Amino acid sequence: MTIKTHTAGIAQAVVLAALAAYPLVGSEFYVEMVAKVLVLGIFAMSLDLLVGFTGLVSLGHSAYFGVAAYAVALIAPEFAPANLWFVLGAAVLISAAVALGIGLLVLRTRGIYFIMVTLAFTQMAFFLFHDTALGGGSDGIYLNFRPEPRIGGWMPFDLAEGSQLYYFILAVAVLVFVGIKRVLRSPFGRVLVGIKSNEHRMRSLGYSTFNYKLGAFVLAGALAGLAGVLYAVLFGFVTPELLSWHESGHVLMMVILGGMGSPVGAVLGAGAMVALEEAFSLLTTHWQLLMGGVILAVVLFLPGGLIALPGRMRQLIKSGGPHE
């Protein structure tokens, strides 16, 4: 284990300990905000699996996020709590199935055509819920009860209690983070990185790159669906805006802000985005202009994202300053 890896492991353990302790000291509002960051962190990690590791820039990732959120609201009974494990499994499977169907079509395109076709599909999903009674139109659907994690007659925890919901979301985020890291270290993950680097060479080596890209696409869609389920449970309502291309652009900005090709960067980008939005909205109603300026600054002056900032600082210190 290198010193860099050891230091990163210690830093991640410290952050995890701080997140675990936060509900003990934070107010209810900020505990919910951190839970939102964790949900969006899962969403960003799922997109980074495509953008940062496979080289597939998608503007339609919100489709799986929103479809799963709506699945929770539509499956849940109106006058009684649903079973968490049932709605979670069903919603994630639905989002994975949607990603499979879309992936079989869009992965036959490349470059700008891929981006535009994914955008077209997410807009189709948006209007399906926005313009029909299926999703309650523009008003969306409310979740009357948070699902209950029943296992037979046993309730291991209660999502109606804020801190327990927070710890459930934290546990899922940690599992997703560890799972993605293991996937990326596996032969499957190595092939994805190879596809991003040089797909023609990987194909010449005998790899069916289409199947690998499809696998990554479905996995990313399922994880985005998982984030959508947690979002619906956390906030208790879903609207068509969750499926809009704006939401896809929003999560893409998180990945860029934090740093592509790093699960840590994806979570960092989600946290930075939520924090900046909160701070800028207190300053002006035109906070989107400030946010756009931050994204431009990161792209121009810190192309590796916030995750690359410590390394950039070390280089500046070693070189004696920016003039070097």
From TrEMBL:
InterPro entries: ABC_transp_permease, LivM-like. It is a multi-pass membrane protein. The chain crosses the membrane at residues 6-25, 37-57, 85-106, 112-129, 165-184, 214-239, 251-275, 287-309. Its main location: membrane. It comes from the Bacteria. Keywords: Cell membrane, Membrane, Transmembrane, Transmembrane helix. Pfam families: BPD_transp_2. It is found in: Cell membrane. One of its GO terms (molecular function) is branched-chain amino acid transmembrane transporter activity. This is Branched-chain amino acid ABC transporter permease. It comes from Denitromonas iodatirespirans. The lineage of its organism: Bacteria, Pseudomonadati, Pseudomonadota, Betaproteobacteria, Rhodocyclales.
